# Entry
Amino acid sequence: MTSFSDSALLALHREIVAIPSVSGNEDQLCTFLCNWLAAKGVKTERLGNTLYAVTGTSGPLVCFNSHLDTVPPAAGKVAGDIDVSKPGVVTGLGSNDAKASVAAMIAAFLRLRETSAHIVLTLVDREETGGRGAEALMPELRARGLWPDFAIIGEPTNLDIAIAQKGLLILELVAKGEACHAAHRHALGVDNAIRNIARDLTAIDDALTAGVLGKPHPLLGEITVEPTMINGGTARNVNPASANCFFDIRVNPTPTPAEITERLRKYVKNGELKIFSERLQPYEVDSEHPFVAAALRAARAVNSEAKTFGSRGLSDLVFFRGIPAVKAGPGITERSHTPDEFVLESEIIKGACFFENVVREASNI
Ligand SMILES: [Zn+2]
# Structure
C-alpha cells in the first residue's frame, strides 16, 4: 500500500466541496464517498446517508466523527459552487464546516490503515439540523461491538481542543387570560394573557440578574437565557386568552435542565413554565483525562499554540456523552455559515497530520 499523499487529500477535499450536501440531502455525497472508499479497498457500512468504516484491531478503538451536511447556501450562492482561483484557498459552502475535517479524517484513516491502529470512521448526515444522524449511529455502533474508547469530533476549531460544550434547553412559558371585548376587560375583571406573560418575563429577567442560575462555568461561562419567540392574542380588539414565549437556554453541565427549570419556576406567578426540549445535553470531559493530553500533544505537534477550551456552539459531541471525547479540527469556526466560507489548504494538510497523531498518541493510553 502506498501512503495517501497531501495532493490526493486536497483533490478529495475539492471533489467533496463540489458535491452539494445541504442538510437532509446528503445522498449524493454519501454515495460518492462510499464508492470512493471502496475503490481504495475500504468497506463501508451505510445507515441512511451516514457512513462508517473500520480499520485495525489493536489498541483502543478511536472514533473519527464529522458531518457530511452543510447549512443552506446564502442568498445568491449555489451549494456545490467552488472557487479555487486564490492559490492555497478553497472557497465554497462546507469547505471549512466540516468538509475540511471529513477529507482530513479520511486521509488519516487511510494512512493509519498501514498500521494496526483500531479506528472507526463515522461521517454522518443531518448534523446542522439537530444531529439525528449521529443520534441514530450511536446505538448501531453499540450493537456492532464498535463502542469507541475515545472519540474526536471534527469541526473547525483551528486545532484547538474543545473539552466542554454547552447544551441547549428550550423552555416554553404559557400564560392564560379570558377572551372578551377589550373594552369590557376591566369591568369584567378577567385576566389578560399578554399582561400575565409580561409580568412573568420581567420576574424571570430580575431573577437572572440576581444570579439565580449560579456562578459561570470556568470554560463555558454563564448560562444564557434568551426569550426568542413570543405569541399572543388573536385580534386588536379582543382581550387575549393565551400567550406563549420560548426561551433559548445555553446550559452548562450543572445545574441540570430540571434544576434550571425548577429555579426559574419559582418566579413564574401568572403562567406555567414547561420543558419543550432537553435533547441536546451539555458535554464535558475531565481536563486531566489522558485522552485530552494525547489530543493536545497531537495538536501541538502541528500548531505549537494549540490549547483546550470550552465551546458555546453545539455539535455532535452531544451524542458522545460517557465517552472521553474532544471536538477539534482544521478551519476556523467564525468562517462557518458565512456566504464566502473558505479554508486554507495548509490547514487541511495539518488537520490530517493532527488526526493521525491523535490515534498514535492515544494508542499508549
Ligand atoms: Zn459543523
Observations:
- The first strand starts at residue 45 and ends at 47.
- Residues 83 and 241 are 54 Å apart (CA to CA).
- The two ends are 28 Å apart (CA to CA).
- The mean pLDDT is 97.
